[in-house]
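seq as requested:
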Amino acid sequence: MNQSSTGRPWLLLGLLSTSLSLNLYMVTNRPPPARAGLTDSPAAPSAASVSPTAGAIRVPVEVVDPSGVRGPEGQMSQERDVKLTDPDWNVLDEEVTHSLARTFSNAESEHGSALSAVYSRLFHWDIDLRRDLRKGDRIRVAWKKGDEGVEIAAASLQSEKLGTTLTAYRFTRSGDDFPSFWQKSGVEIARRLKETPLADYEMVTSLLKDRPTHAGMDFKVPIGVSVLATRSGTVTRTNWNTRANGNCVEVRFADGMLAKYLHLSKTGVRVGQRVQTGDVLGASGNTGRSTAPHLHYQLNKGNRVLDPIDVHGTIARSIKPGERNAFDSNVARLDALLGNALARR
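struct tokens:
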């Protein structure tokens, strides 16, 4: 055997040793086999990094399991997409340049006038928008065009005269037939008469002070809602001057004051009849000189027109304690719809 032939086994053993070492390395460093439901694809993005879907907003929500137990330490520890009930809300944010009507019309040519009318009804309890609105004040409103006209979900008015920002959030309190507008504190914006001609209604659309030529208080309410006697008295007239008043009822109180209920769909009392507080006089309507269903309520004594607010007094309702969480969630959703602008002011 020569030198070359005796070295070949060592060369072969070297190659085999190298191959064995390579195989052992690959086996010991191979990833574990995939289990059911797992993949080797990149990790999915976290909830906080996922862009909201169209028509969705993101607000912090408390984690609650089906049993009602809070999440870790009961904190607002997770975000969830909250779908808006209607994706068609528009947000208008404008500085007041002239009158409220012109500001809205300049910003929204098609629906500005109607939007101005609805918006003004929210805040006329706290400010005279004809006299006290100033250039540089700021209006912000989430609105849409609905089947019955312009609808508002939330609004604010940053007023230089008041030195504060008024806010309004739409919410339906349990037991109410209609939604109303509330401050963030949970107090209703609109005052309600202590002695009321309607058990419930959508909103007060006109106060006595709103228009110099308007002699009463208007309540937006659908056709057919019971109209009530605000005090005990005697029915003195029904259905007079129907071209303007439509179906109507007049009641004289004990002190000689006259209460007039106009634009009814029907009357349910007769002249000379005695009525007690809360008795049904008729049903709301849209008769006479009326452009939409409502009740016109008017008080007169002699030749004087009296303000129902001064005569009957008012109350301000509050959100019930048991639905405070639902109300706060609604406010958070509406603030998000407005871009959280109200929360920053």
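Confidence is low (pLDDT under 50) at residues 1-7, 24-84, 341-345.
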